[in-house]
Design brief:
198 residues; seven-stranded mixed beta sheet; globular; 5-formyltetrahydrofolate cyclo-ligase; alpha/beta; two-stranded antiparallel ribbon; EC 6.3.3.2; 4 helices
Length: 198
Amino acid sequence: MSNKRTHIRQSIRQLRNNLSKKQQEKAAAQLKLNFTQQLNSEKTASKKQIAIYFSNDGELDTSLLINELWRQGHTLYLPVIHPFNGATLLFQRYEKNSPMRANRYGILEPKLNCSQICPLSDLDYLLMPLVAFDNQGNRLGMGGGFYDKTLAQLHAYNWQKPQLIGLAHSCQKVDALPIESWDVPLKTIITPDKIYHW
C-alpha cells in the first residue's frame, strides 16, 4: 500500500507543480472567494479563530486568503513543529509583524512563543494542506503524518471543533485513495472549482 501512496504523491505533486503562474493566481483568488463564502454561510459569531498554513511545493496559494481573513477581523494561527515532540504541530497566533523562522523543511513558521499557542479545541477552523483527496473525503498528505498525529488526540471523540477543511487544486482529486488506520478523513474540501461536503 505504501508504494501506491508514494506513486500517488509523486504524480499529483507533479500535476500541481506543472500549473502555470496564471493558473495559480486564478486558483488563489477563487480559494479566497470559496472559503469566505463558506465562512459567511455559518450562522454563528462572525469573528473566528482559524489555523491556516503557508503554501509550499505547488500547493494552493493561501496568501490572498490570509490577507482577506485579517481584513475581516479573524484571528489566524500557523502550524509550528512541536519543539519536544517533533512529530506533531502546535498552532501559534500569526500577525503581520510576527517574528518568523524557517523550520527544518525550509517553511516559515512563527518563532515559538508559548503565550501565543492556541489549544486545538479552541480553533474554529483548521485549514489543512494535502497532496491528494478522493470521493469519500480521504486525505493524503506529504507523508510526515504531522496533521494525522496532531489530530489523533481528537480522533477518538465526537468533537465539534475545530472544523477540518482541506484545501486543494482540482487536479489533486482521485477516485479512491489507499487508506491507513491513522488517516483522518475530512468533511469539507475546498478547491477553486467546488466545495465538497461529506
